[in-house]
Amino acid sequence: MIGVEEIKKKALSKYTTFLESVVNNENIFPLIISGNKKPSKSTKEFDREIRELLSNSKEQKGYGFTIAYETRKSKILGTQSFPSKFSFESEIDYLKFLNKTKEVALFREIKKETFTEFSELKTWMLKYPKKIISNKENWDAILKVCRYFKKNPIPNLYVRELPIQVHTKFIERHKGIIKDLLDILIEDYVNFDASKFEERFNLKFSEPLIRFRVLDSKISEKVFSGISDLSIPVSQFRSLKLKIKRIIIVENKVNLYNILTLPNTENTIVIFGKGYSVSNLKNIEWFNDKEILYWGDIDAQGFEILSQVRSYYPQVQSVLMDTNTFTKFYENDLGTISLVKNELNLTKEEGLLYNRLKAENLRLEQEKIPHGYVINFFNNL
């Protein structure tokens, strides 16, 4: 037979529905819990379960569930009145049973205050009432943040510079719920393509740096006052629009240093891609008409990163990532097992080598290729 704990579990499963009814000013009572369950196998056990149900019922406690019975015959118990359903006749009965009275009172206060200022959040509150419950102790501070952004949708400040009377780390710790609300409240000003909170809501942030070397001394002198090795924020790098012809992207620092020893090379820059951080190079418009070369490790991950770069710029060509180079310099090193299953954006030859490297977990790191061989290769491009 169903017990008190199972009744509570089923009642809790309806809590979200109840909170939705509060948002909508609806009455969902009486709330019915089904009691259809096989009876106990002994009279003694049946009597014990009935006593437990009665002692926790509204009849005994003054609140909680009311028991409805149906009379039927059982082979073991004979003709008995079996509990058939349990109903919470009122909100008071339901909330006192679940010990949620104070929580719901606070939920109603939050709803009233929020609707008064931000009626456009009703649909969201109806859909995510449990998010409100999870953040109930912080709701006043959350509304302070909402008020500020509603008046200042383009702050252009760092998060901790915002003149909001909340803890300095409050926004950083509650970005998820604040993002949900601001997406609605300042919809016309949200950068929906940006996943980073600061970028999404027009805040300053510490950007990743792009390190690159200008191999053409004339461009270095003309644009950067003779400085050839630079690291600048992504947004500034995007705005450079350098008048060059060729971009070389290398995966790690060792090969960045290798290429730095190249003699003056016209209309060319080399960029340190930092492995998977190469994602920082996407959406750079002035890359679109440039020749782009990618040089990574000859292992599964190297080709996966190559595929990633090629998804940004289809014209990307790999260099020093071929079977001949691998065969010539491979030193029996093992790589990192790849779990990638999707098809990569590789040429036929690259794909064949990738499949072998992945299947056998092989690796030739860039730095294992002799410096002289590298310099000779790039000098003859």
List keywords for this structure.
381 residues; Dna Topoisomerase Vi A Subunit, Chain: A, domain 2; 19 helices; 11 strands; 44% helix; Wadjet protein JetD C-terminal domain-containing protein; DUF3322; JetD_C
Structure description:
The protein is α/β, with parallel strands linked by helices. It has three domains: 4-99, no CATH class; 102-200, no CATH class; 209-379, Dna Topoisomerase Vi A Subunit, Chain: A, domain 2. The protein has 19 helices and eleven strands. It has a six-stranded mixed beta sheet. It has a three-stranded antiparallel beta sheet with strand order 1-3-2. It has a two-stranded antiparallel ribbon with strand order 10-11. Strand 2 and strand 3 form a beta hairpin. The longest helix is centred in the first third of the chain and has 17 residues, at 101-117. The N and C termini lie far apart (81 Å). The relative contact order is 0.07. The model has no long low-confidence stretch (mean pLDDT 90).
